[in-house]
Amino acid sequence: MHFFLPEKAQAFLSLLATTRIYNGKTMQNLKTSSKKLQVIHTAIRLFVTYGFHTTGVDLIIKEAKITKATFYNYFHSKERLIEMCIAFQKSLLKEEVLAIIYSSRYRTSKDKLKEIINLHVN
């Protein structure tokens, strides 16, 4: 799965810019989008490898090569980062499902459904 396709990243960051965070404030405009996406990508890799509970903020900031202050400026908490990782993965999956639905590569609805199931299983 590609995490850094520019057109997908911009759409995702636009979505994030309008979401709410735990303290109820709207997120700021995201000018550091590529670095933030790099942290999200790093976190996803670490969560898949070590799990949510085992992966600490210290490991994420070490692997992403950012400071703890930058981490908390971007995400406010580990829980918020997890939410953003899930939202990012969900956004990518949705685009892949839509690509299958509108593709002429699959001749029947049954073929499309099989491919969507394969996408979810893999």
From TrEMBL:
PROSITE patterns: HTH_TETR_2
Keywords of the record: DNA-binding
Domain HTH tetR-type: 33-93
Transmembrane segments: none
DNA-binding annotation, residue ranges on this chain: 56-75
Coiled coil segments of this chain: none
Keyword tRNA-binding listed: no
Recorded GO MF terms: DNA binding
Name of this protein: TetR/AcrR family transcriptional regulator
Highest classification ranks of the organism: Bacteria, Pseudomonadati, Pseudomonadota, Gammaproteobacteria, Moraxellales
